[in-house]
Amino acid sequence: MTPRDGGPTGAALARGVGAAAAAGAADAAARFSRRADTEGLVDVAYARADSPLGPLFVAATGRGLVRLAYAASGEDELVADLADAVSPRALESPARLDPFRRELDEYFDGRRHHFEHPLDWRLITGFNRSVLRATARIGYGETSTYVELARRAGSPRGARAVGNALNRNPLPIVVPCHRVLRTGGALGGYGGGLPAKEHLLRLEGAYPP
After folding, report:
1. Does residue 134 form part of some domain?
2. What's the N-to-C CA distance of the chain in angstroms?
3. What is the pTM of this model?
């Protein structure tokens, strides 16, 4: 059949075949991911999540959410870091992350004020864990300061160390380091960038302080 007959051109047929092949490959990858997960062959499952702040990278182990990061364009590096720190058996598995991704959607829609998904704290050690445990107790719509958080973490003069710990937070948003401000109400720093910090505080009704 020729284009004059109203049929598809060779290019159109090629595009159709290519699309079908891509769909078939994606379906096969999804089946493989589900089977590997079911058979216990995946130690770290990861996926991407959309957000008003741009793409997010999310990863979980059998214990719970282990990593959340801004800018999923750096996904290869994030997966490599998890392979080194947790296990090389890491696989993209969106279905396994769906429950947490739904919680994120609800949070950004203003319908969720706390996250229920369990957390895996293994990437956080020492003083940093004390800081981030204290950070996790700052409620929705509330704020704290670097100085106050240092006191809660057991190091009253450690405000600078607190800032460093928050900047290395592997679970932003969920462990809400965006709720920590400078004394007097200035935003301070934020690993995801100050516009993201301001957006999250406005979402929670905590900005301006």
Report:
1. yes
2. 69
3. 0.81
In a domain, residue 208? The reply is: no
Q: Is the dihedral of CA 158, 160, 163, 168 positive or negative?
A: negative
In a shared domain, residues 173 and 144: yes
Q: How far apart are CA 59 and CA 76, in angstroms?
A: 13
Position 208 scores a pLDDT of 86
User: Whose CA is closest to 132, among 93, 182, 178?
Assistant: 178
Domain, as residue range, for 172: 126-203
10-21: b (≥16 Cβ within 10 Å) or e? eeeeeeeeeeee
Catalytic residues: 177
pLDDT of 32 reads: 37
Four-residue CA torsion sign, 31, 35, 36, 37: positive
Instruction: For 29-83, write each residue's pLDDT tens digit.
Output: 444 345 445 545 799 999 999 999 999 999 999 999 999 999 766 899 999 999 9
